[in-house]
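Reading a protein record of the kind used here takes only a little practice. The integers have meaning only within a learned vocabulary of local backbone shapes. With that in mind, consider the following protein and its fold in token form:
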Amino acid sequence: MEVKKGMRLIITFLGLVFLLAACQGKVSHPLNPVKPDADLAQMIKWQIQYTDELDLDVDVEIFNLDLFDTPRESILELQARGVYVICYLSAGTYEEWRPDAMLFPETVLGQELQDWPGERWLDIRQIEILTPLMENRLDLAIQKGCDGIDPDNLNGFENPTGFPLTAEDQLLYNKYLSQAAHSRGLAIGLKNDLNQIPELMSYFDWIVNEECFTYQECDLLQPFLEAGKLVFVIEYELPPEDFCLQANQMGFSALHKNWDLDSYYYDCSNFSEK
């Protein structure tokens, strides 16, 4: 009995040591749910890939990967090299190909997204139904070892969802996601939803924006920079020479990517005006 008791004490002690080390590691990184040092450089090297065979050999500090499709082993391999791993999931839409798709009742499913067959908007007003579904996904992120999450489609109220969603509905849902992630020790980014940045910036640890240069709305991202938080920008249609110089001047971590988010990427930090 004394041996077992001693072993339990050792295991408990080691668990505390590892927990402390993990917490210390999170505090030191600018993307964790703590206020980052104001002197941290705003631009950072990163990659985002959701399709094709994963290329894990790219020299980046942050990797954005699909939560469901990425093996835990790949996440751990990146982290062993000091790479911070963000895991993508759609929090505002239903995707029929996901392994938990059968858990979404028809009552929360709205219109299909244009150009995205098999994907439908969610009725985010029904938080009591969506809560266990989303929290199961956050728990999966913990199980896989993700450092943070990138929840997509957080601006349903601005789209034809099939539901009379309001800005207040969206704020309530987005704040819920932030609190659910942070309570698990996960960092969380805001995806697009530019018009609600003033209300949401303090709840999110960074922002991922698609095509702000294309739509000439990059100035709306400034509150994140002013708060010492990273701004990730992806452009698809514009060539790098049409936006990279300005992105660098603004302090954005900007990439040029293909629409299917395969392994190709052009990092604007490598751009130099000739």
In short: The first strand starts at residue 46 and ends at 49.
